[in-house]
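Researcher: Can you fold this with flavin-adenine dinucleotide in place?
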Amino acid sequence: MHSPVSDAHNYRANRTEKYLDHSLMPPCQAACPLHMDVRGYVDLVAQGKIMEALQSIRSGNPFPSICAYVCTHPCEDACRRCQVDKPVAIRALKRFAVEFGGDRMVQAEAETTQQEKVAIVGSGPAGMACAYYLRKLGYPATIFEAHSEMGGMLRVGIPQYRLPRQVLDTEVQRLTQMGVEIRLSTKVVSLDLLFDLGYKAIFITIGAHQSLRMGIEGEESPGVIDGATFLREVNLGLKPSLGERVAVVGGGNVAIDAARTAVRLGTKRVNILYRRGRAEMPADPEEVEQALGEGIEILFLVIPTRIKRGNGRLSVTCVRMELGAPDASSRRRPVPIKDSEFNEEFDTLITAIGQAPQTPGGFDVRMGKGSTIQVDPTTLTTNRVGVFAGGDAVTGPATVTEALAAGRLAASRIDDYLQHRYPVAGKAEREKLVGDLLPETIEMIRKISRLEPPILLPEARVKDFEPVELVYDWETATNEARRCLRCGMGAEILFQDKCATCLTCLKVCPYHVPCLDASGTIQIPAEQCQACGICVAECPAKVIVLRKPYDRRSINEELDHILKSAAESKSKPFIVGFCCQYGLFGIGTLANLWRGAKAGVWIVPVLCVAKVEAEQILRAFEMGAEGVFIAGCGEQCSREDTAFWVRQRVEKVRKVLAQVGFETERLQTFFPSTTNEDLAPELDKFAEQIGRLYLASAIMQEVKS
Amino acid sequence: MIVAEQKSLAEIRQMITPYQRVLILGCGTCMTVCNAGGEREVSFLHNALRLAESRSGNGIHTFSEYTVKRQCDYEFLDSLVDKIGDVDAILSLGCGIGVQAIAERLPDLPVLPGVNTSFMGMAEEWGVWDERCAACGDCILAETGGICPITRCTKGILNGPCAGTKNGKCEANKDMDCAWILIYKRLERLGQLDKMRRYYPLRNFRTIPRPRRVASKASIDVGEGNG
Ligand SMILES: Cc1cc2nc3c(=O)[nH]c(=O)nc-3n(C[C@H](O)[C@H](O)[C@H](O)COP(=O)(O)OP(=O)(O)OC[C@H]3O[C@@H](n4cnc5c(N)ncnc54)[C@H](O)[C@@H]3O)c2cc1C
Ligand code: SF4
């Protein structure tokens, strides 16, 4: 015959609950060119699990430290928290994870298992990523770089105050460690030569370095320089003399970078001339803000029309613009205002109105619009057999992550090609979460302001090229990470046929998410659910699960685990605490209780105490706990209802305790009212009380027998 | 819907004393809806009983759990047959109907009621249920604006309100609405106040001859042919 315990266990194990991950792909992940598991690592940061967060990040991104500094974070633009207040500061959280998780220490390794050599032309992010993944796949890879240093635009474009060169150097070093052969100062002019050298496949990632011309009179004058060249010179160690007053023409990131670099070189007055308004500026708003803070003036709706050089200065004729009808890019087209011309004197004028790739004729590849290289978007193949291309050279000026994604894709396509495999479409993708939050849902979501990482004060920034943005401290990072809405993780009815349509979920949901459809069936719209788990723990038919059942399953597993350890330790009496993993237990005042720091207190970490079910509390008592407590994160919780539901379940259990002759004080809840409230003394008091009750009942037993 | 309340743990423990192996049987319909005997309550009770056993130190019982969609029809109980092999008794968390259905379907097995079947009613809010219908067998809701004086008036009178109504509440319980005031207001809204002015003759409150039976099928004699 079975013991009662194993019976219950069999029962649980045999339940047909599918341990499948039904979670939907959140918009952040869908927006990321690398499809990083943003929701996953942000949640790990929220729990203070920094190493695990870094591990998750590294599994999706070859150079996370670089992205942590410069990524344009399309994920944040897609973040649905935008609809509530402001997006989660994902890039800054990644920066925190890589710095505190120790990304610098990670060793990259690779083994050569294939013979076919692959040549990579260009050492920008696309080339580096391709080399990284080719090495992981076991191919010998050689990078050819025209410049004297590795990194492409990461080296010669992006200024050091936004990407410290040590970060880039570490990655380059890791590539060398992995066995990537690097040929610097080697400009490739013919692909045939590479094939002759024995390379079986070539990946072209030459970027887009040729600045576009404005096409105005006097553009050739000395004192006029293009942004890409200017930044390259500065980044390669030259110190161009710019004079007192500099104008930068353009409204993109390159223009802002050039202007801020000019300030750092000691220029007294820097003006940006941009032909549209602030709202239309393609540059990152944060960086525009920082530029303004550094004293850069932006003249909006202004365009230079003529440059005249005289007396060692430039006299620039400008005209004012107004915005007309929207153009092809759906931005309003600027049109000159009649008779609005004016002259300004500058020492230097930097043009930054865009770049295009410059492909050597000897490559013999088919070109498309804007001098870009034409490829098949799924295979990245060019018109030449064995020649692949990606990155800015194909897309025109884009972003680092897009280049990384192209490099990764190229590596697997080159692998397909060399192994004579038909390129398989990417593995079946998770269904995407689509749809906006309803106003009713938004209203119920707690507003929490976005926490920005600290940045240096403008006076300190402009002195040199030191990084402007600092890292979060531990507490700020976890609090920021907790703002994530966990889109796509929400509840679903797993067994519709068992649903009694009792409407409990409708009544308990803090966000009014579940609804009845016209046929009288409960629907839990995935795009509204906040994955709090309250209905999961309350559903009388037990048919609701979270799309990622991980949370609840792990409560049972952790509970079993600690009950076993507690029984083995034989220390009596023992106390079981269900603690919120986010606040108190993750990094807060209870963090030191992790696995028995306090003798006899055993912690079950839970991702929100609202998920703790009454049955689990009873089970702790049944297995010998003399006391049980539940500690939530209190005021910090994403929702106000947590304490209410925990207390409901506690009262229900207390009723049972009273009937089996247990004092109800043996079950306690702790909800600190402030973040810093130290629960340790209260917990000590509780432990003492349990000790006394235990002693008293032990004496009673003695007396009885 | 039928509303019930779980019996106290003490009473349940008393009931199961003679039996060693007990199957706790939930009901997936009304008892799930009123939170008295659905799958969650089954496993909560299971845990509570095991805790009680382990506390008493001389536990002899073993428990198993199972929930059927509805206990009050034999067809749903068929799936039980292979679950009861080594069971000494069934502790049913179904309403009184369910318990009896089990008794009829499984004539050799003791069945014990785990809940007190209380009334027919509906949820007032989460976790609160109110009585609505007494199943009197002679419905007069058409006359009373859809509000039942038999269940909702403490005295069950047909020609209310009585003198005990005060500020819309009942003299027997100041928190409870006077059913007859509710009826008045509703009839007023419907423009049917004339119904208030009528006198309803006393009803026959003699015990209803039981058990009652309702048939919705016509009784047709076999062999009557085309009608
Ligand atoms: C000033 C500036 C700031 C930027 N800021 C950001 C930012 O903050 N965030 C972001 O995501 N993106 C930013 N970008 C864009 C980003 O840097 C590029 O999209 C990305 O570097 C493109 O990568 P890639 O590998 O395709 O090309 P590149 O990085 O341009 O690398 C191409 C490399 O190929 C080499 N090469 C070219 N021709 C040959 C040849 N014939 N033989 C050998 N080598 C050759 C080049 O020297 C270069 O090193 C910025 C760009 C600039 C210019
Ligand atoms: S998990 Fe929470 S937010 Fe989602 S439906 Fe259930 S109660 Fe509502």
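Model: Folded with flavin-adenine dinucleotide in place. Chain B touches chain A at residues 8-10, 28-29, 32-33, 35, 38-41, 43-44, 46-48, 50-56, 59, 61-65, 69, 86, 123, 125-127 (CB under 8 Å).
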